[in-house]
Write a structure and sequence with these properties.
Number of strands: 8
Structural class: alpha+beta
Helix content: 40-55%
Oligomer: single chain
Order of helices and strands: HEEEEHEHHEHEEHH
Strand order of the largest sheet: 4-3-2-1-5-8-7-6
Mean pLDDT: 91
Low-confidence stretches: 1-6, 234-240
Number of helices: 7
Bound molecules: zinc ion
Distance between the termini: 69 Å
Largest sheet: 8 strands, mixed
Radius of gyration: 19 Å
Length: 240
């Protein structure tokens, strides 16, 4: 090994880590702005987190509009929730923490106050184990099945208990009268799944009362087998 090789190696490692951190921060801000600009979360609502290799997270700050984030001011939170750098994190940290804890495959979480998903969460007929029927293949492939958890005041740490109660079986969760929380194995996957959930909620509202044909149990089984989906339960239940 030439003299200084180990030192150079570690310098390159540090530089790479800094580059990755910058890329991740920019990616969070780019997706956040895109969601905001399409009207998917108003004002300073909504938050995004990404799990880091050290067990901590990068999280969007409290009272920050997703449309106008500064990559340098994102909150860097340690594994036990302590602030390491940046602005104070969203007060909805407990719901992110509970979902990461119970769904260990999650690398990113998106939470929005998107209109159609919020509307869906208030309808009386919603099955808390499958908030939407199997309407489209892409809903099932990206969002899976969606659980509905009862209403909690924003920032109420009791929401964490409700999310832990789902035992990590759901990647997409609807908070009643509040909005969706969606986990993905990457930030892009979490964003796309949240968009799919919102669009499917919109379709449900458009078709409500019109007796639409949903995917049949056979079609759902075919998708599940072809794409290796692991849906929490038989999604044909309760939606005849
Ligand atoms: Zn919220």
């Amino acid at each position: 090994m030439p003299p200084g090789a180990a030192y150079q190696g570690s310098t390159a490692g540090v530089e790479e880590a800094i580059m990755n951190d910058m890329k991740l921060r920019e990616e969070i801000c780019r997706f956040a702005r895109s969601l905001f600009e399409r009207g998917l979360t108003p004002g300073s609502s909504g938050n995004i987190s990404v799990r880091l290799d050290d067990g901590g997270w990068l999280v969007t700050p409290t009272n920050a509009s997703l449309g106008f984030l500064d990559p340098a001011r994102l909150s860097h939170v340690g594994a036990s929730g302590e602030l390491i750098g940046g602005d104070r994190p969203t007060k909805e940290i407990p719901l992110h923490a509970a979902l990461y804890e119970s769904r260990t495959s999650a690398r990113a979480i998106v939470h929005l106050h998107s209109t159609h998903a919020v509307a869906l969460s208030m309808l009386p007929e919603i099955d808390p184990r499958a908030a939407l029927p199997p309407m489209t293949p892409y809903y099932l492939m990206r969002a899976g099945q969606t659980a509905l958890v009862p209403y909690y005041r924003p920032g109420d740490t009791a929401v964490a208990g409700a999310i832990r109660g789902l035992a990590g079986r759901y990647s997409s969760i609807l908070l009643a009268n509040h909005g969706p929380v969606v986990a993905g194995d990457s930030l892009e996957a979490a964003v796309f799944a949240t968009e799919e959930l919102e669009e499917t909620a919109k379709l449900y509202l458009l078709l409500r009362g019109l007796n639409p044909r949903y995917l049949t149990p056979q079609q759902v089984a075919d998708l599940t087998a072809a794409y290796g989906l692991s849906l929490p339960a038989d999604s044909s239940q309760g939606h005849e």
